[in-house]
Fold these 2 entries.
Entry 1:
Amino acid sequence: VEHFTRVLRAYQERLRDLMRDHRMKYVLIFKNHGAVAGASLAHTHTQLIATSVTPRAVAVELLSCREHHQVKERCLFCDILAQELQDGSRIVREDAHYVTVTPYASRFPFEMWLMPRQHSHCFAEVPEAELRHLAVHFRDVLRRLRHVLKNPPYNFVLHTSPNTQIEPKRAHYWETIRYDYHWHLEILPRVTRVAGFEWGTGFYICPTPPEIAAGHLRDARETEETL
Ligand SMILES: [Zn+2]
Ligand SMILES: [Zn+2]
């Protein structure tokens, strides 16, 4: 947990530092685990790429959140969290600080989203004291995944606010983001193949219902010690 906390702190420090560079609109932190998921080095590592544009996939999510907020005056992810906590069938782990779910209409079998309970748009603003709670939670859900699917290849991506300190003439662009966006981690196991249908449509065929995946991941708790 100590080590994991230091890794998360490094993510934050790199994020904060790169956001000082106003040419950088977005900083993507991600991990490729296993050759199938694109890992090119044998030892475990995370990668970071800062881009001079907000990537399209991120922008679509940001704009959807803004649209939801304009209509409902609530954060989309806070709404998802409340609904998932009430329903319970897709919860993998919940504690006082974080919740991980297998999202409704998951794109991939055993896909998970880890979200802070408390609304926060930017991972760089997570207080130092929270990082340890996140390390405990994140480590636990990754161990469950490793146990249930026998160390599968996976990717995870950190979705956080783009750089809002960009040049003044664009400052208005994300001015409501503090209220309408909610940072999260998307954990994407690579147990099925993305093929022609997915590339051609942007639709994903997921043979494992998220409720079944969540059940397996919850049950992994008893065997945690043996991991
Ligand atoms: Zn929220
Ligand atoms: Zn996302």
Entry 2:
Amino acid sequence: LRSVASSSKDLPGEFELIARLSAGLRFSRRTILGPGDDCAILRPARNAQLLTIDSMVEGVHFKIGWGTPEQIGERALAVNLSDIAAMGGTPTACVINFGIPKTAKMPFIDRLNRGLRSAARAAQVDIVGGNITSAREFAITIALLGDAGAQVMRRDAARPGDNIFVTGTLGDAALGWRILAHKVRAQSRARSFLVDRYLTPTARLEAGARLARLRPVPAAIDISDGLLQDLSHMLDSSGVGADLDETKVPLSAAYREVARDDLSHALTGGEDYELLFCARTSLPERELSRRLGVRVTRIGAIRRRRGIGLAHMKLPASAGYDQLRG
Ligand SMILES: [Mg+2]
């Protein structure tokens, strides 16, 4: 029996907690059996399957108190959704591992879980299983399954002559992070826009799915580690190089207000979760933006010679975020 003195905010046991976190989950037709057994059971899919995994760790990827617990949960799923978007797929089901410190309070976990579940509902993703482990810091690890469309966008498919495009605007999340970390100051409107871009990124699922219908199929990657870093990944896997016009990199009004003409956050700041893609299309930006349902900007072209050439400046010493180098 639990002590009567223990507050209702304290953690219940592992199995009670699992039951609480998965209570009332709803499933689509593809899920035959959700959480509760040794494995979930899913119906066989018609298309090829995409599978990805990502972790968010307190102190590494987020700080408690920077956003609401709901936002932390929402963001944990968004970063995974973004990987499915980058391949042009449709997310379908996920399993979640929660690393929970012994000192954690139940209301925090409930709210975090609420954020996660509402993000899953919005993306029509079934939460089909989970696990809880005791940990020193909060950590949410999600393995996400997705249906590939008729064609998959890979990062090794960039060819000389392709145009290079990005969705949305870049560098906002990096500035949002710097504002939260008190490294940069901003006025209220710019501040809330940039902080929101960091706390609640939008995975470009719809744009990704529509992009994958272009022929030839574009090469694509999502920008999680910074434009130059992620572009390098794509160039390396494709065995090509790129000419980039850094003055074309799309910036938000808030970015310009806070960082002025400093392009470094847009070039090397991560966490925007926009899509970077290379396409042979002759469609103008406007028409592409209309078709993808999001602003699209051409920022350069793929060339045969390896490496990245910028139009008016030298390459920054560090291309962007590296998990193991920090
Ligand atoms: Mg990715």
